[in-house]
């Protein structure tokens, strides 16, 4: 009986939480899935059936490969398991193929990869000191954090209903944050570099990482008042960090550099032709900007300030993904959004540089970077808000 | 209560699990010409909406009783009528007479699932929450954990054709346990008028209330209570059956539909004695119909009589709940025309005693879900049933630490063991035996499930796996019948006093 108890993990609430949410994910298998399901099936097909030189050129399906190379390799590995489920899904020309076995395989792959997320949450919990509060389980910070992260409904809906692989990617990010908290900076940097080559959206938070590592890791000591001690700059550390990032990038982009495909890869990764806003607007600043533009154009037409013939035909509210011109307000270019984003993250970066408060300060800066990039970025998806929400959870719990 | 927010979370988890399970296929999906229970429910809405009351239970050109004719009491018909009005408002095609046969669409499935969920939310779930809050002598955390386990019981989630009758029965138990006898009996009468299978629970209700009346003294308060209860029962039956009392033929026809004695001892494969017996000796074919009736009647009543008599003589809340279990189990094992789903009538009372004997209750509820395996596989509910069973098991193990509660006292077998030890001094290994039996049972269930799912049965015995499932479940149920009867018979007042003192 004791063996059964251990096997079912009774004494451990963390296992119960992790198992419980995994079972819920299994129940979500027959739910609705979005076009992202077909996107990933297509990528499985591309990486399995075609040579590397074709990966970023293949365009049979409209869902072309637009994630960095590590993710492509991940799909390649998955495809070797997929062939035991249903060989047909690996055919590039089988557009919108979704047999029950395909569905089962894809859903299970997401559920399985969440193991990394569970591990990362466990590591984050270790970084929290929960001795101050009482004995009640529901009041312990570790418990609260685990529930908020493991049972995060935004993540559940996006990953297990809508269908994406955010779980293990956020796992990588949380793990790198945990390593930074544990003063294992090299591992943290390495994990973040790897993460960037899985999904480049994490560039949103790269400034926070860069500044923090430079300030708190490369400068090994501070003056008594907390300001920077220039003499404590460690070349060894800078070079080793640079080496780590360089090696990871080389591993990722190396093959494509050798094939002279870097421009193509970058054009796939950063598709500026997609327009300021996604088909469904992310609730960011540009949504307000567009709405204002629309309102002003309507008023302008009514009050006859504008000539109807000058209004461009493509409307931003039509749900299409393309570039537009604004009617009343000045049009926004990618450079403008970049400048706005940089201005927005400047205060937090400054604080991180001039008044570092250790990992907690880093976490706050990271959350702010993610939020600012969400607010002012070019072609932001609504899902990107998760990037800000998940680190915020840890931040809130540390302050408890 | 404090920690109401935790109870809310538990209810929301229960609702989420129910809703996600309902996303799967339903019984009889895409299987013309008869389809399944889902089509039956839709058909009843069609019949009750389009035909006058007098024709609901009669065979006519508009109402072909062979095609899912109404065979539940009037309250089910009224409920279907109510749903039909809502359906008419949304899309009349769903209940159009004759033309809507076999109607299947996503919107309709959503509608049907929503009516079930609302029924659960209004009747069953509040009853569970209130029942757990009214439990005595346990902490708030345990009450909430109890509610979680009951709401996660797989059987009621997977067989989701509306559990109005179980909800009403639960209100009945709640009322009677909290001394609101009149309201409790009213709720239970409504339950019987919803599904006649609730008669499985009728004897314990009757015996317990009768016992209470005797205790209060038949010359004074007891007699008053008896009269009041009789009035309530008669009034509720008359109210429900009013349209059918106008003619004798109406009433008789309804009764004929409710109790189809022509159908035989059992249909399909069910985990009761007769089906298991049939494996060795084809009693269904050998014995004539009336002998079968008498045999099942006698065996049912013989097996439940001791517990009921004890309940009349010593009415107690605890005895009442256990007698509910053993009575319903006796009916399930020995009665006529028992359906696999009737095990839910036993599972509900077992859920009620979850806090008293967590280990045995969890074991029973796992077996009850397993016994419905052939039905669940037919409805393509393998994944949800595995997932919900695991969730239920984990919830029970985490909430009650069931594996630490296997001592004799925890299993309520102390007085029994003491009595046996008077004759057999070496009888000290009861809890050991039970633990091993549990392990064997679970291993057998897992193995059989794996076999049924992965292997094909041999050609000569196409029903091999269903029969094996029924046989194994039946053996388990027999063991539980003996166990629950032992608890009832050896439960003594002194035992209870001892607990209070210590």
UniProtKB/TrEMBL annotation, chain A:
Annotated signal peptide: none
Membrane topology value: Multi-pass membrane protein
Regions crossing the membrane: 12-33, 104-122, 143-163, 189-214, 235-259, 335-354, 361-380
Entry keyword Transmembrane helix: yes
EC number in record: 2.4.1.-
Pfam families for the chain: Alg6_Alg8
Compartment list: Endoplasmic reticulum membrane
Pathway, per record: Protein modification; protein glycosylation
Gene Ontology MF: a single term: hexosyltransferase activity
Keyword set includes Transmembrane: yes
InterPro entries per UniProt: Glyco_trans_ALG6/ALG8
GO cellular component, one term: endoplasmic reticulum membrane
Domain of life of the native organism: Eukaryota
Keywords: Endoplasmic reticulum, Glycosyltransferase, Membrane, Transferase, Transmembrane, Transmembrane helix
Family membership noted in the UniProt record: Belongs to the ALG6/ALG8 glucosyltransferase family.
Name by which UniProt lists this protein: Alpha-1,3-glucosyltransferase
Lineage: Eukaryota, Metazoa, Chordata, Craniata, Vertebrata
Gene behind the chain: ALG8
């Amino acid at each position: 009986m004791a063996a059964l108890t251990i096997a079912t993990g009774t004494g451990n609430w963390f296992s119960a939480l992790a198992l419980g949410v995994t079972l819920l994910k299994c129940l979500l298998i027959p739910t609705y899935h979005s076009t992202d399901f077909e996107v990933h099936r297509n990528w499985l097909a591309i990486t399995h059936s075609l040579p590397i030189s074709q990966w970023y050129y293949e365009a049979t399906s409209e869902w072309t490969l637009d994630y960095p190379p590590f993710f492509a390799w991940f799909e390649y590995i998955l495809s070797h398991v997929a062939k035991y489920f249903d060989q047909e899904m690996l055919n590039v020309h089988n557009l919108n193929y979704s047999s029950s076995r395909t569905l089962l395989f894809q859903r299970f792959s997401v559920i399985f990869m969440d193991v990394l997320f569970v591990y990362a949450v466990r590591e984050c919990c270790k970084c929290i000191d929960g001795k101050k509060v009482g004995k009640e389980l529901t009041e312990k910070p570790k418990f609260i954090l685990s529930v908020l992260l493991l049972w995060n409904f935004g993540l559940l809906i996006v990953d297990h209903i809508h269908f994406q692989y955010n779980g293990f990617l956020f796992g990588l990010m949380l793990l790198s944050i945990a390593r930074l908290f544990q003063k294992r900076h090299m591992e943290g940097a390495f994990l973040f570099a790897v993460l960037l080559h899985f999904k480049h959206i994490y560039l949103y938070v790269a400034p926070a990482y860069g500044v923090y590592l430079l300030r708190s890791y490369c400068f090994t000591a501070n003056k008594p008042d907390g300001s920077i001690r220039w003499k404590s700059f460690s070349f060894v550390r800078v070079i080793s960090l640079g080496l780590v990032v360089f090696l990871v990038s080389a591993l990722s982009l190396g093959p494509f550099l050798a094939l002279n495909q870097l421009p193509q890869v970058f054009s796939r990764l950063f598709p500026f032709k997609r327009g300021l806003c996604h088909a469904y607007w992310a609730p960011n600043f540009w949504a307000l900007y567009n709405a204002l533009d629309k309102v002003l154009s309507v008023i302008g037409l009514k009050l006859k300030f504008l000539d109807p013939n000058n209004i461009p035909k493509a409307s931003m509210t039509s749900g299409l993904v393309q570039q537009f011109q604004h009617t009343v307000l000045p049009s926004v270019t990618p450079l403008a959004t970049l400048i706005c984003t940089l201005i927005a993250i400047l205060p937090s970066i400054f604080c991180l540089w001039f008044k570092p408060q250790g990992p907690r300060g880093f976490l706050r800066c990271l959350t702010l970077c993610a939020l600012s990039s969400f607010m002012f970025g070019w072609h932001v998806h609504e899902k990107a808000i998760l990037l800000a929400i998940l680190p915020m959870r840890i931040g809130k719990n540390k302050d408890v | 209560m404090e920690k109401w927010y935790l109870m809310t979370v538990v209810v929301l988890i229960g609702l989420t699990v129910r809703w996600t399970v309902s996303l799967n296929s339903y019984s009889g999906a895409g299987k013309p010409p008869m389809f399944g229970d889902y089509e039956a429910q839709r058909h009843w809405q069609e019949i009750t909406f389009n035909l006058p009351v007098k024709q609901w239970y009669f065979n006519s050109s508009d109402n072909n009783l062979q095609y899912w004719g109404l065979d539940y009491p009037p309250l089910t018909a009224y409920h279907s009528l109510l749903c039909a009005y809502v359906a008419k408002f949304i899309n009349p095609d769903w209940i159009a007479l004759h033309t809507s046969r076999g109607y299947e669409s996503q919107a309709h499935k959503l509608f049907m699932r929503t009516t079930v969920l609302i029924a659960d939310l209004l009747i069953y779930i509040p009853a569970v929450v209130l029942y757990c809050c009214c439990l005595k002598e346990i902490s708030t955390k345990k009450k909430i954990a109890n509610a979680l386990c009951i709401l996660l019981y797989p059987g009621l989630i997977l067989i989701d054709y509306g559990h109005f009758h179980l909800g009403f029965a639960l209100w009945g138990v709640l009322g009677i346990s909290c001394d609101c006898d009149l309201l409790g009996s009213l709720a239970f009468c409504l339950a019987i008028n919803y599904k006649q299978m609730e008669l499985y629970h009728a004897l314990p209700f009757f015996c317990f209330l009768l016992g209470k009346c005797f205790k209060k003294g038949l010359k004074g308060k007891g007699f008053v209570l008896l009269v009041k209860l009789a009035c309530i029962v008669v009034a509720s039956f008359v109210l429900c059956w009013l349209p059918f009392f106008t003619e004798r033929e109406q009433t008789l026809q309804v009764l004929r539909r409710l109790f189809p004695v022509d159908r035989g001892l059992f249909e399909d494969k069910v985990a009761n004695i007769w089906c298991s017996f049939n494996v060795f000796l084809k009693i269904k074919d050998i014995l004539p119909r009336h002998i079968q009736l008498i045999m099942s009647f006698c065996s049912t009543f013989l097996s439940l009589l001791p517990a009921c008599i004890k309940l009349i003589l010593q009415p107690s809340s605890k005895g009442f709940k256990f007698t509910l279990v053993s009575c319903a189990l006796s009916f399930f094992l020995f009665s006529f025309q028992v359906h696999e789903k009737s095990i839910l009538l036993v599972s509900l009372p077992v859920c009620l005693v979850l806090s008293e004997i967590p280990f045995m209750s969890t074991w029973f509820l796992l077996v009850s879900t397993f016994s419905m395996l052939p039905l669940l596989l037919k409805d393509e509910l393998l994944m949800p049933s595995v997932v919900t069973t695991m969730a239920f098991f984990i919830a029970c193990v985490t909430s009650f630490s069931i594996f630490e509660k296997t001592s004799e006292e925890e299993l309520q077998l102390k007085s029994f063991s003491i009595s046996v030890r008077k004759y057999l001094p070496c009888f000290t290994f009861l809890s050991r035996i039970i633990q091993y039996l549990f392990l064997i049972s679970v291993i057998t269930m897992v193995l059989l499930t794996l076999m049924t799912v992965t292997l094909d049965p041999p050609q000569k015995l196409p029903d091999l796996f269903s029969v094996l499932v029924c046989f194994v479940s039946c053996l388990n149920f027999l063991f539980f019948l003996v166990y629950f009867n032992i608890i009832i018979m050896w439960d003594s007042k002194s035992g209870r006093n001892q607990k209070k003192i210590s």
